[in-house]
Amino acid sequence: MRGGAILDINADGALEFVFCTQPGRLFVVNEAGEFIYDYLFAHRTINVTPTFGEMSKKTPGLEMVITGGEAGLTHCFSTPAQADGLNQWIAYHADSEKTAAWFGLTQGDTLRMSPKNLAWNQVVAGEPIVFEISLPEHPEAPMKASSVCLRPDGARETAFAPVVGKTGLLQMPVNATVPGVYHFSWTLQDAEDTVVFSGEKALTIKPLANESALLNKALSALNSTADALKEALPATERALRRESILLEAAMKQCMSKAEGLPQMAPGEATAFTDELGALVAKARHLTAITEVLEQAAALGATTSLLAFEGPMWECVDIARLLPEQAATELSLNRTVVPGEHEPVSLKLFNITDQEIQVRVRWKTEAESIVVTPLQSRPSPTSKGGISWDPMPELGSADIITIPSLSTREIWLDLALGAIPAGDHNIAVTLEALDGAGVLGAPRIPRSVAPPTVTVDIALKVIPFDMAPPGAFRLCTWSRNDDAAVADMLAHGSNVFINSLPAPIYAEDGSISGLDMKDLNTFVKWFEGHDVFLLFSGAPRLKGKVGDDIFAQELAVYLKLLVAEMAEMGYDKDHFAVYSHDEPGGHGWHAVHAVIDFGKAIHAVDPDIMIYVNGGGEEPMFQAFAEVTGVWCPGINMLPEDSASMDIIRNNGKHLWTYNCSYSFSRPVGPNLKDINVVGEFRLAALFNFSYGATGMGYWSYNISEYPWGRIRDEYTLTYPGREQVVSSRRWEAVREGIEDCRIALALQQRLNDTAQPLPADLAARIRDLFDRQLPEHFEQSFTEMVKGLAPYALDRTNNDAVVQRFRDELIACASAVAQLDGKAK
Fold first, then answer.
1. How far is CA 557 from CA 542, 553, 564, 793, in A?
2. Cα–chain-centroid distance for residue 655?
3. Residue 749 burial by CB count (10 A; 0-12/13-18/19+): exposed, middle or buried?
4. What is the pTM of this model?
5. CA torsion through residues 751, 757, 758, 764, sign
6. How many CB atoms lie within 10 A of CB 765?
7. For residues 70-93, b (16+ Cβ closer than 10 Å) or e, as one string?
8. pLDDT digits over 367-401, tens only?
């Protein structure tokens, strides 16, 4: 075989490889590596590269010309390939210029919409047809991707999704329950509904054929792997035999139902395909398990656990995660700055046939590092699923239980404190206390060392100071007690709400002081922390706003309040009056109440700030602007190019946001346990930073129904524990995002330091991160969110890889600045 052509020969939106062999065969192979065309010439075809071009205007599509060989003939074939379709190599030495240069592996800027699993042997129950969309540049307006499947029985199945960035994804569920030809078509349209790309393909599908093949493949893999591991890993062999028996029984039960598929009513057919889809998913999972266990054979007969990282910010299917490589030793490298909390998520897969008790141990020479082990726990969601959102501490025994052939997660919170710059190590040992070979040893008194997994965590600490905690504000509405406040402070909360102190009246009816008892107790929680206080409501004074007596008493009250606050260490930049919650949503009566009270306050002391949160109409914001010092609109208003946001940005001292809408959830609302954690929580602080806000808030920290159960409104960021607050993956994500934001704020401050200008290349790199990379991501992410794209599309844009990319760039810039400033010193 010598060379070949690379183009979309069948106009399905994907590339194919067309080539000849020396014995005289012409083949076409699709992206999945499947042979989709095979032709035998009457002679050999030595050194033939198929060439494609427009040879005849009378026939649709491009023609394919084949010459050479030993016959002295030229062959011309008509093909469905389109002149404007995908092509990367269509002639000998690539093109008419004979450049012989192929950049296919680097071409990411081609307009295309390609099905990834649209083949006769890949359509199975429970798995949608996936179309990947790529554009040469970011579209000025969202484009429209759609797909249609016309079934043999005349039923029509469709899917649609906006495409708002350079890449997109469309998934189309297909129920192939009727034998025959399924016609698929797909189109990509611009904002004016002009079709800019299209493709089509017809598949002949026999119901249950692919599912049966996949199930039998899984069954065969279980049995063959069990045979191979009988001597090397006997506990694993027993686990695989068990799963083989269970899978075979489930297959028989499901296939017995399948016999009645042609007679099933539509509802029954749907229920059956759902059941079959779940079985297919289980079979794929078991097949993947066998592939991992085949690698484990070389690790030793007592191997019980495999360690891996896996995704950190995924709440779903933790138990089904599998390592890419079988390993009992893991080395992790992290670059950090002093004062951070660095999370380390360790996944442990139990390869034995029994439940295992695993104890976590660790050792570090750095006294400033405090290690707190947590574990993710399953919790029912509002939609009836399971989320691994709760993150309780392991407890005094530091033991976690892992079922057979299942994965569990240990989360190490590394509180770095005032750690010195340089290299530091944390050695983690995970002991399978009753693992393979422990309980099976002879039943006489003896010591048997547990099988272990070791994890070496190498920390490189750079001498770079984050912006102080007060540079970014976080408010999480809460019911407060000692444990809750300590946990909130540790996670970055630094805005707290309390009532205004009551006035104390003397016998003559004048105000003689303020009742500071409750407030003094309240602020003791925050000693040593930079905290901002919001005073809710209004003081109970004589008269009403606008009366002379009210104005006189308010003047005395505010002077006493300012003095008392200063005595406690709070100047007027650290508190504001929060008289009404979301006044714009309650109408003009509430708006005027806020404004009138604000004017009365400012008549006494114009430096006392008024806090206004929520939405409203543009005239309301115009009215609020006269008194507002702290703006806190809903987070979805922040990217708006609107008159209301112009008013907010150009008035007042501070711009914060708050979130109680949770638009990344599907359906939109407080369905938070299985939400896209990256979009809603992990990158939220950087989202606010990118749009100029210096604070954010969440409803709520611990105000909701009992969150451990299935509840409708999953607002709370934490879970109640017996003695302490139980964290969540979402709450950990909030803290990590704020710490990244504090690094960004410190970089921004250093960038703007004209007294010590950065080198041009470093300054350009930081600006590129702040002015291009973050805005491009957040523009696409926000648009996908508000356009209502499906969870799979949101997950494609907001995931662990995206977080790591931004984190790596932040740390790289911080390292460069630290190195530069260190040399200057």
1. 11, 6, 11, 54
2. 26
3. exposed
4. 0.88
5. positive
6. 16
7. eeeeebeeebebbeebbbbbbbbe
8. 889 999 999 999 999 999 999 999 999 989 999 99
